[in-house]
Amino acid sequence: MNSTPAGSVPPRPALARWLERPWFLALWCVLAAFGAYACMYGFRKPFTAGTYADTQYGLQLKGWLVTAQVLGYTISKFIGIKVIAEMTPARRANALLGLVAVAQGALLLFAFVPAPYNAACLFLNGLPLGLVFGLVLGFLEGRRMTELFVAGLCASFILADGVTKTVGAALLRSGVPEPWMPFSAGLVFAAPLVCFVWMLRHIPAPSQLDVAARSERTAMSARDRLAMIKRHGVGLLMILLAYLLITVLRSFRADFAPEIWAGLGLGKQPAVFTYSEMWVALGVVASSGLLVLVKDNRRAFLFALGLSTAALGMAALALALQRAGSLPPFTFMVLLGLGMYVPYVAVHTTVFERLVALTRERANIGFLMYLADAVGYLGYAAVMLARSAQPRHENFLALFLSVSTWLVAGAMGAMAVAGVLYAWRTRRNSSITRL
Predict the structure, then answer these.
(1) CA diameter of the chain
(2) Out of 3.40.630.30, 2.60.120.40, 3.90.400.10, 1.20.1250.20, which CATH number does the structure's domain 20-425 have?
């Protein structure tokens, strides 16, 4: 029997009342997004802590394993251009858990399938995981505090990259066989993932004030997507080019961290993966999250592009000092990580968010992020395929420094061009709905 008097408003759940408080909502969203995406990394990255000796065919097995997963991840980004852009809020949480379950099943197959054929299992692992970011992002966009929320989300893939490698390395040291280590690591993160997805599910929709400040976010048809690309032309192309180069550098640094740290002389300290990325995450979250204080969408958008260019300049300086032998290894990896992740995260937290808010487009940032990620991971997949086909490089650190220098220089130039172009187009007013 219903005890609520006729005509009265039924009491709201306690959690819903707490989520109406801005400070609690911010804490809830950051924790939920950070935790959910960090746990996803537990199904994707721990395998890179292994060495995977060459097969009898003379192939560089680890290179092929990384490449296979990146190919699956890349294809999922192209799929996500449509799927994420058209995803409705009610389907996000169940889709997220289902995709991760498929990825864990692929890791179970990886333990049974012999090398080098088990590379196909990592392809199947990467295919569903590439859609997870867009699902989590959909819970956070279009709000006055979106930068803060997404900064927490992005901190997860900075810090989780090192943490999950540490977990993988610890499992190997405890005696878990290399083929079983990725699946075992996934089991470690399964229960926490379910809890964090439950938190995501309870995030309320954007308020009327959020919509007024940042525009309403809607599902996008194919016509909407094509129209937006045409309207933004060269400016969007430059951002995508910079993002492509940064993605290649980020993935190269992340997937071959053991080899890079070994070249720097710190390869026998597994915890260094986590410590270095912890400092990077703190710096990136601080620089990106503070942009929530800039209320004007044009100023925030242009400042994010300028900050990205400056950070890439810092990365270029760190590379030059390292090649000259003037920078300690740990400091070098932290500075390079900051210089690389500040623009990478700025695109996630501010550049696309404020671009949509500024133009009032019928759009969502999930579409723009998957457009950027599709291009970025396609470039990285091409690099990995080319590298896997080449003989093993005797000095991996020298190769990494050389490639990184070119990538940073190109990304810095493209980001600077995008900043100048958008500043010129918006010099008379703060709206660029029609370019």
Answers:
(1) 79
(2) 1.20.1250.20
